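worker-3 :: picked Endonuclease/exonuclease/phosphatase family protein
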Amino acid sequence: MSRLVAVTVTLAVMAAGCSSMKPTATDPAPDEPSSIRVATFNASLNRPVAGQLVTDLSGEDAQARAVADVIAANSTDVLLVNEFDYSGQDAVTLFNDNYLDGQYPYSFTAPVNTGVDSGLDLDKDGELGGPGDAWGFGQFPGQYGMVVYSKFPILTDSVRTFQNFLWKDMPDSLLPRDYYGEVADALRLSSKAHWDVPIDVNGKTLHVLASHPTPPSFDGPEDRNGKRNHDEIRLSADYISGADYLYDDNGVRGGLEDGASFVMLGDQNSDPVDGDSVAGAIAQVLDLPRVQDPAPGSAEHGTDTADFADPTPGDLRVDYVLPSDDLTVIDSAVHWPSGTEHPSDHRLVWVDLEI
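worker-3 :: C-alpha cells ->
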C-alpha cells in the first residue's frame, strides 16, 4: 500500500495528456448494444526517483512485463492504472508501445498532487520540504500518479480534473483544523487528483471517474489521513450526486450531469468492513442510488482485491469498479491467480458492461 495525499489546469495541458489516434477496428452502429470490459489496477509502477519509470519502460523491465501480462490476460477495453508515475506522456506511450503491444490508441494522464511541494510544514517536523510537506505524500512530483488507457476515443475537451480543489471548500468536511492550524485553509483535498474522463463508446458517452485516495494510515491520533481518505471518497460521491459546491481546475462548478452514464474506478484505500478507514468511508459511494456494486470476486479470496501484510491489515477490498444504474452488468471478477508471484500487492478488478 502506498503513502499518499489559483485553479488553472488548462484544456491544453489536458490535451497534452491524451493521444488521438484512430481505432483500427470497425465500430458497431451507435444504436447497437456494446459490451466492454472496464478495469482498475493498482500496478505499483511507481519508482523511487523521478524519471526512472521512463528509463525502465525504455528497455525490458521484469515488473512492467509482469504487469502487462496481467493486463493482457484480462483483455480490458478501458483501464485505470494507479501508481503509475506521472512524466507527461512519455511513460504512458512507452508502456503502451513496448509492453501492451500498442493496443490502446487513446490515453489520458495529467499532473497529480503527490510530491508537489506545498512550501508549508504539513507534517509538523519543524522543517520545510520532503515528501510529508507535499500536497500529497511523494518523493517527487508525480510519484504514484495514474493513467487511463482506452480502446475508445477520449473526449479530451470535456475532461475535468480536480487536482486543486481545496479541502476547506467541502461543506461539513472532516478537515482536522486543530492539527493543521493556520495552514488548514491552504490544503488541497485530493492526494493525487480526481478525474472525469468521458469516453465515446460507439456514440454513447461513458464518464470514467478516476481517483486514488490516500491510505487512512501513517498518521497519529488526529487521524488526518483517515479523514482525508473519507473526504476524498466523499468528493467522488458528491460529484456523482451533482453537488454544486464543487469546482474543477478550470473553474467550472458543479458535479456530474444528472442521468449521465459513468463508472467509478480506482484504489480507494477503503474496505467496507475491515482496515483503518473512517467508518462509512466507502459506503458514501456504495450506498448511492445511482451506483451499482457488482462485488467482483475470486474463487479463493472473495471480494478482496489487495494482498497486504498479515495479520494487519491483511487482505482487503480496496479497488473498485462501480458502474451507474443505467448500465447492465454482464460479468465481473478479481484477477487473483493462485500459486504465482504477482507484480503488485493489488489485483486487477474488471466488470463487463453493456453500454
